[in-house]
Amino acid sequence: MAKIKIIGTGMYVPGEPISNDELKTLAKIEFDTPKVENKLGIKSRHIAKLRDIKESTADFATEAARAAIKDAGLENNAINLFIVGTDTPEHISPATSLLVQGRLQGAEKFVASFDVTASCASFTSAYNIAASMMAQNPSMKYGVVTGVYNMLSFVRDGDPFGYSIFADGAGSFVFERVEDDDPSGYINGEFITDGTQWDYLGVFTGGTKKPYTHKILEEGDWGLQFLKKMPPDVNMKLWPKMLDGLLEKVKMHKEEIDHIIFTQINLSVIKDIMALIDFDMNKTTCIMDRYGYTGSGCIPMAMHHAIKEGRVKRGDKVMFIASGTGLAVSSNIFVY
Q1: Is there a single domain that holds both residue 53 and residue 135?
Q2: What are the Cα distances from residue 308, in Å, to 42, 61, 301, 312?
Q3: What's the whole-model pTM score?
């Protein structure tokens, strides 16, 4: 039976990094620097609009995909599948993936392109979908899955929470369809959903339920909004449950996992989770110190660093666990 393996990775962030001190000046905000640095782990980030860079989601995604394709040693026209995982798309319609395909391949092709929107679990969800599609379709030899984030486009001026945490970035994987005898490849994935939590945090304006109006814009009732307070321990409960559930599904023990990467939202939570599951911190990779929180871009960006820095090598068993508002949680397990 066929499966997919990672043969290339790439990432993109816009402009020069912005430190916490510089951010306060550029965004004209104040926030608790020790908390952001010591608890969340964020020391710098990249934000296109604060560097006056005229780029957005499709630009980030295209450059990350281009870098991953180059890393895989392929030409752009070799790709048969483009998936973009994001909850901050370039447009409501058409899909961001279509723009990426058009920019990289420049013409009509027998190629599949679509977006996956599952909050900050969009990339890991897209990974699971790509694994199923490519394994079942011999004509899909190569696929590109990109996680990308541009939540700063929805953060209102003067919002210290939004500016201190969220950042711009994208990460991409190139997958190759291989036969089962290849030692590397996708094993399985798992999902957890609770749609009763849809109204905690999100971008609720601009869709069919609440289209933009002059009144909404004048009142500032748009962009990233908190309608209810998020439970502070949500990931402490979800991530171990997801770990156990996926391991049970694939009949593996946690000791077999060589590396695990979580949503890069809170360094202190990741440290607590690693202690809880009795894993040393050298079995994970954290990048929020350099990039802030990049949503669905953070896991492929972290994996890119893990590979290039030698923290993950061929033959390692790797797990991803991502969670996003709504509630959406998804995971992947594979041999790199």
Answers
A1: yes
A2: 21, 20, 11, 8
A3: 0.96
